[in-house]
Amino acid sequence: MEIKKILESLELTKNEIKIYLEVLNLGKTKANKIAETTLLHTSKIYESLQRLIEKGLVSYVIENKIKYFQTTPLSSLNLILEEKETELKENKKLLKSLMPDLEILQNKSIEETDIRVYKGWKSMKFIYSELRDKLTSKDTNYILGASKGENEKITKLFFEQHLTKLASKKIKQKIIYNLNAKNNIENSYKYKKLFQIKYIPYNTPTEFNMFKDTTMLVFLKKDPIIIIIKNQQITDAFLIYFNLIWGTATKD
After folding, report:
1. CA–CA gap between residue 131 and residue 212 (Å, rounded)
2. 108 vs 94, 104, 134, 212, CA distance in Å?
3. Domain 2-74 -> CATH class
4. I need a surface site. Which of 183, 204, 221, 245 has the fewest CB within 10 A?
5. pTM of the model
6. SS3 155
7. CA 232/CA 152 separation, integer angstroms
8. What gap in Å lies between CA 33 and CA 242, rounded to an integer?
9. Cα-based torsion angle of the residue sequence 134, 251, 201, 224 in order, rounded to the nearest 10 degrees
10. Are strands 172-178 and 140-146 parallel, antiparallel or unpaired?
11. What percentage of the chain's residues is helix, strand, coil (to nearest 5)?
């Protein structure tokens, strides 16, 4: 029933929805009648009815010392929805105004966290988007052990798009490919002024990606695993290792 979806959007509980619909169906009715038709305990019915009254969806009258319940005009549903929309808009405005302070808190938290672990291609999209946002044309991204990955089709498509976006920002890369991945990512050869490429004659199970104060260990499995280490000393140490390999790697 579609009305249930609307009532759920108003954050009514299952019992409140059940009781509201029963009162709507019965019209002016007593609590014991609702108990008969819903099979709910009377105490639960009174609790839910009280909350529905507070939300403006149910009202009551007393006749001959007996309390009868009935639903308020259906326009009250629309009114409550409009109030929620207004509240949502106000919360969005509030969130926007608080965003700078929240980002400061988040950045502080991230800085205190040296290691983060992610999994999956959605995480890859987020992480590499973040990488591109952090780098400028003055920076260089260093990659050691670039491979075809276990899912060659997705890996190829992902990095073709990534390198195109890097090139659009004129971000430089020095890439050491595993030899079996030679010519796999075509876009790495289209931007010769930006991307320097060499090869090592063996396969590495892990791709190392270094930029600024961050080192990423990327395991290109069918469901990739990414370990991010944010620490300048560790990144500097990996760059020393990268430069040693770069010196012995071949261009063909």
Report:
1. 10
2. 21, 6, 16, 17
3. mainly alpha
4. 183
5. 0.55
6. helix
7. 32
8. 78
9. 20
10. parallel
11. 55, 20, 25
The residue whose two tokens read 């976006």 is 165
Distance, in Å, from the CA atom of 89 to the CA atom of 84, rounded to the nearest integer, reads 9
Residue entry with tokens 């999994």: 119
More confident residue, 4 or 162: 162
Taking alpha carbons only, the member of 157, 162, 146 closest to residue 209 is 146
The tokens for 193 are: 């002024």
**Is the torsion defined by CA of 227, 230, 234, 235 positive or negative?**
positive
Q: Give the burial class of 211: count Cβ atoms within 10 A of its Cβ; 0-12 exposed, 13-18 middle, 19 or more buried.
A: buried
Which pLDDT tens digit goes with each residue over 22-78?
888 888 888 888 888 888 888 888 898 898 888 888 988 888 888 899 988 888 888
In the chain, where the domains are located: 2-74, 111-248
Q: Are 184 and 203 in contact (CB under 8 A)?
A: no
Element housing 118 (H / E): strand 115-119
Asked whether the beta carbons of 165 and 191 are under 8 A apart, the reply is: no
Of 3.40.50.80, 2.30.30.100, 3.30.870.10, 3.30.565.10, which CATH number belongs to 111-248? 3.30.870.10
Res 110 pLDDT > 90: no
**Residues 40 and 19: beta-carbon distance below 8 Å:** yes
